[in-house]
Write a structure and sequence with these properties.
The complex is a heterodimer of chains A (474) and B (501).
Chain A lengths: L5 H7 L10 H11 L8 E7 L24 E3 L18 E5 L21 E3 L5 E2 L4 H6 L11 E6 L11 E2 L6 E3 L2 E2 L2 E2 L2 H9 L13 H21 L4 H25 L19 H18 L4 E7 L35 H22 L3 E2 L2 E2 L4 E7 L14 E4 L11 E4 L21 H11 L24
Parallel strand pairs in A: 1-11, 1-14, 3-16, 6-11
Antiparallel strand pairs in A: 2-16, 3-15, 4-5, 7-10, 8-9, 12-13, 14-15
Helix pairs in contact in A: 2-7, 4-7, 5-6, 7-8
Chain B lengths: L6 E4 L2 H14 L31 H25 L8 H16 L5 H12 L6 H14 L1 H4 E4 L9 E3 L2 H13 L5 H8 L6 H12 L6 H11 L19 H16 L4 H7 L2 E4 L20 E4 L12 H6 L8 H12 L23 H10 L2 H15 L13 E2 L2 E2 L3 E4 L7 E4 L1 H9 L2 H16 L8 H13 L4 H9 L2 H4 E3 L2
Antiparallel strand pairs in B: 1-2, 3-10, 4-5, 6-7, 8-9
Helix pairs in contact in B: 1-3, 2-5, 3-4, 3-5, 4-5, 7-8, 7-9, 10-11, 12-17, 14-16, 15-16, 18-20, 19-20
The chains are: A alpha/beta (474), B mainly alpha (501).
């Protein structure tokens, strides 16, 4: 496709009200980035809740009842399903993957850490992660080249259907740094902005050096000394807490230093922050913009952005996203999942909305060259639900889209690749496992090859065996 | 000799707010705007504030720093208004300011070397401007582990392998345990003057802080976390189908009901059997009351039919908290009774490869759940214990309404209670089940064990047997008052002493 001209990019920068204050940011970043960036690999995941309905995920010939039990299918130059319409500019540069199985987390409203392929290991609704998820793994390799190895941003709606954009969460169970170590997801755009670009104050956007970083380091120097002194008084598990405290402080000190020396932290990345983020979708749109800016700015090479709209049976009303559903008005995401309010069209509208946000991100990544490639050409961007193939997911069939060439290592080509999949009965009961199924873990093994990172198996073997990279995608 | 292990204990989100409030109040600032850096970091444990539950990442440190910066930004001008010398501060100017803030932030006086380092942090950075430099010291205090972590290490001479908490550690322990707030001026004064040295000193402060359990914020939090009814807000019910169902109202109604019980005698028996409730007009259907019979728009106490309702297990908040969007969550209702009231060792997660329940819209939940107890051996051991307890509540639907039929057939809520000692036996419905539970010494002992975990912030160990026994005896002697149990805990040697390192 044609590169997006800078002016054209600026015109497309806005995504709803939340983007109003970020458009200048993106503008500045683009202007700064063009011409002086060096090539680097990036990995992005955009996830959304409520499942990506399997009936409408493939080309028309494979939709609905035709999506039943069958062997591997590869369709070249495949039509995009309607809900992926926003991805049309990248139609020839994406691969629409279907049929991967992954049911370690047990499904339900939230597949837990299954999305990045680590099973939940212990008690609690999302459980405790059984190990490191792929995003964190790849951040340990390609993330090293940036001040922040990885960022996790998101929007969350649950507990009374309300969004609290002022807290960060670690209990939603999607990403994990390691066994028992859930990755925190920043659900406040203001917090995300501050952590990445500094206080959105009056000096923002002027290019002035960020003195806040140095000040923060001085504060942490003091704290670090306190931690060491207290640690010396403790033993055993209590000492381990202080070890963790010290590690976190030192980690943050390193990040602050790296940010100080980063071209993206010169203060040019700032812009007034005025939105109140009244809706979860406004929060999410802002988070997508912030993540994009951080990637473009070179502050990180790995980002996840998650719309967590359906945890623990909660629903949310998204009238600005879903219109014309059979409910005749605002709908609850949970409600459209099943029962009397079951409405595939409404859920697909929701998916289509997120595809638009994803497309907005792709446009910016594809609009900036690093060396002889655009950012997107050397990156991989993944679009998927955190809940597999339906509202009450079972992980039988995990639809996802990959965009970007990964520096030429990922074979996309506008294909629809459906792996051997089981079908379902009218009651959504599986028709039985197949011996030739491929696991979602195999996809991450594939991406591990793309990113030259060691690792051939993701997730726990047993429910579905991982068998290594998917050769069709390499 | 009784004691607990030395420990550090991260402030909860509420405690963090209360300590910041105390710091601000010292400078005459009524309120500061900041984002609580701990909010949102939930625990996997039963109770939200367990000492062993600690995680801190770089992102967490970043948020701590951001909150500290926000607080400092609002605190420094207030300090400067009180001490003009802060416009160009030297050590003499800084000393009283930092000592005052430090006492509130660390809940103990600053050590000399801490004061020196903080002073140097300010004076060494005056080139950044005095407000910024003073702000650095405030920020350093609020990111320090001495701020974030409650410390219970013990001090003084080792006697019988243990040391008593220092006076300031004890002041903090009492204050946070009983009020979720830092020590007030009285406690700080007593700590400074060795006024918490005797058992009588401690008992007097426990009495002052605890008041009645109905007024105790931590007792109310215990009830919420133990009975878990606030999780009803996490369960989606479609408002089109259940317009009367308001999770927030239900929680508030049970809070009011609980407050009344917390302050009275025979707490455990009453909480399991009382057929009263607080109801408002809009939520009357949840309690099977005709809206016309409930006129008040604010929660009003009513007596419900004794043949239908008995205690917390029949409160709509509890029943909907243990439900799915459209059905009862029989397994988790049963697991709650098993784990929380009977202290049965039941796993929190199901084994792998559990088959889905068959989808039969005409089957009762009892019929559907039979698969776990009949066709899957790996499920049987636990479901034999859990499911009959949960099925005892089947005379209520998933929004908490009493019902007599399910799928057009009479509800079967019969079962047999086991593992309760002298309360074992058959029951038919929630009322009989609750009455059996209320008469069980096993339930009473289990309740005391959970109380111990909550107020000590840790699980009980073998050496705590005496503390548990004394707590139970104290509660019984006081006619089942919860305050007696709490007081017995926080005046015990296990609370006051730490084993020597």
């Amino acid at each position: 496709m044609n590169r997006i001209h800078r002016r054209s990019l600026l015109a497309r920068a806005g995504v709803g009200a939340a983007a109003a204050w970020l458009s200048p940011l993106t503008r500045t970043l683009v202007a700064e980035a063009q011409g002086n960036l060096t090539k680097r690999q990036r990995f992005v995941m955009l996830t959304f809740s409520n499942g990506n309905d399997w009936d409408t995920v493939g080309p028309a010939a494979y939709a609905g009842s035709k999506a039943a039990f069958g062997g591997q299918v590869i369709v070249e130059n495949a039509d995009l399903p309607a809900k992926y319409a926003a991805l049309a500019p990248w139609k020839g540069r994406l691969v629409n993957v279907d049929g991967l199985v992954n049911q370690q987390g047990g499904g339900g409203h939230l597949c837990g850490y299954d999305i990045a392929c680590v099973q939940k290991a212990s008690k609690g609704d999302p459980g405790s992660p059984g190990g490191q998820t792929f995003d964190e793994h790849v951040a340990g390799v390609i993330g090293k080249g940036a001040p922040l190895p990885i960022i996790h941003l998101g929007a969350r709606t649950w507990r009374g259907g309300l969004t609290n954009p002022d807290v960060s969460v670690s209990d939603v169970g999607i990403f994990a740094r390691g066994r028992g170590q859930a990755s925190e997801i920043t659900t406040s755009p203001k917090e995300a902005y501050r952590a990445l670009f500094g206080d959105p104050g009056a000096k923002a956007g002027t290019g002035a050096p960020r003195t806040d970083l140095l000040e923060s380091r001085k504060v942490l120097d003091y704290a670090s000394e306190d931690v060491k002194r207290l640690r010396a008084q403790l033993a055993g598990a209590e000492r381990a807490k202080l070890e963790q405290y010290l590690g976190a402080v030192e980690d943050m000190q390193k990040r602050l230093f790296a940010l100080e020396t980063s071209p993206g932290a010169t203060g040019k990345c700032g812009a007034p922050l005025t939105d109140s983020f009244a809706s979860p979708e406004a929060v999410f749109a802002a988070q997508v913009e912030i993540a994009t800016a951080a990637l473009v700015c070179g502050l990180t090479n790995v980002a996840t952005v998650s719309f967590m709209g359906l945890g623990f049976g909660m629903g949310t009303v998204v009238p600005q996203v879903v219109n014309g559903s059979k409910a005749g008005g605002p709908v609850s995401l949970h409600g459209v999942g099943h029962g009397a309010l079951y409405d595939l069209r409404a859920n697909d509208q929701f998916t289509a909305h997120h595809a638009k946000l994803f497309a907005g991100m792709l446009g910016k990544l594809d609009g900036i060259k690093e060396g002889d490639q655009t950012i997107l050409e050397s990156a991989v961007a993944m679009f998927t639900s955190d809940n597999a193939e339906q509202h009450h997911a079972r992980g039988w069939r995990w639809p996802l889209v990959l965009v970007g060439e990964g520096g030429g290592k990922l074979k996309t080509g506008g294909r629809y690749v459906r792996y051997p999949t089981r079908g379902k009965t009218a009651q959504s009961v599986p028709t039985g496992a197949r011996s030739d199924q491929r696991a979602l873990g195999d996809l991450f093994s594939t991406l591990a090859v793309v990113f030259d990172t060691p690792g051939t198996s993701w997730g726990k073997d047993g429910l579905e065996a991982t068998r290594g990279p998917l050769t069709e995608l390499l | 000799m009784e004691s607990s292990a030395p420990r550090v204990w991260r402030l909860s989100a509420l405690q963090y707010d209360n300590v910041v409030k105390s710091v601000l109040a010292h400078a005459g600032v009524a309120k500061a705007i900041y984002t609580n850096p701990i909010a949102g970091l939930t625990t996997r444990e039963r109770f939200s504030n367990m000492a062993g539950d600690f995680q801190l990442s770089a992102e967490g440190v970043d948020r701590l720093g951001a909150a500290a910066k926000d607080v400092a930004r609002q605190l420094v001008p207030a300090l400067q208004a009180k001490a003009a010398c802060l416009g160009n501060p030297d050590a003499a100017c800084l000393k009283p300011v930092l000592e005052g803030i430090g006492l509130r932030a660390f809940r103990r006086p600053l050590a000399a070397e801490e004061l020196t380092r903080l002073t140097q942090l300010v004076t060494g950075n005056l080139a950044l401007g005095a407000p910024t430099a003073v702000g650095l010291a405030i920020r350093a205090l609020l990111v320090s582990p001495h701020f974030l972590l409650r410390q219970e290490l013990g001090a003084g001479p080792v006697e019988n392998g243990r040391r008593r908490l220092s006076s300031y550690e004890l002041a903090s322990a009492l204050a946070f345990t009983l009020t979720d707030a830092p020590p007030d001026d009285t406690l700080l004064m007593l700590a400074a003057s060795n006024g918490l040295a005797t058992s009588a000193d401690v008992a007097a402060q426990v009495g002052r802080l605890l008041k009645g359990a109905g007024e105790s914020p931590t007792a109310a939090r215990f009830a919420r976390e133990y009975f878990r009814y606030p999780q009803t807000e996490r369960i989606f019910k479609d408002p089109k189908d259940y317009p009367f169902h308001s999770p927030n109202n239900l929680i508030q109604e049970t809070d009011l009901w609980m407050k009344e019980l917390l302050g009275g005698k025979d707490f455990l028996r009453n909480v399991l059997t009382a057929n009263t409730a607080y109801v408002r007009k809009s939520g009357a259907p949840s309690y099977n009351l005709e809206p016309a019979t409930v006129t008040s728009t604010t929660p009003t106490k009513v007596t419900l039919p004794a043949v239908q309702r008995a205690g917390i297990l029949t409160q709509p908040s509890f029943l909907s908290a243990f439900s799915e969007s459209e059905s009862n969550d029989v397994i988790n209702r049963g697991r709650f009774i098993g784990q929380s009231l009977l202290c049965l060792a039941l796993p929190d997660t199901a084994p792998e490869n559990v088959p889905p329940l068959r989808e039969d819209p005409k089957a009762t939940m009892r019929e559907l759940l039979a698969v776990h107890r009949t066709s899957v051996p790996s499920c049987k051991a636990c479901h034999d214990l859990m499911d009959p307890l949960g099925l005892g509540l089947e005379a209520f639907d998933h929004v908490g309404r009493f019902r007599t039929t399910e799928q057009g057939r009479p509800v079967d809520a019969t079962g047999i209670l086991m593992a309760t000692g002298n309360a074992d036996g058959p029951f038919d419905g929630a009322v009989q089940l609750a009455q059996r539970l209320a008469g069980s010494p096993t339930v009473e002992g289990c309740f005391v064990r959970h109380g111990f975990r909550f107020w000590f912030g840790r699980d009980e160990v073998r050496g705590d047997a005496c503390v548990l026994a004394k707590g139970l005896a104290a509660s019984r002697a006081a006619g089942g008052e919860l305050t007696a149990l709490i007081a017995a805990f926080v005046t015990s040697d296990a609370f006051l002493y730490r084993s020597s390192l």
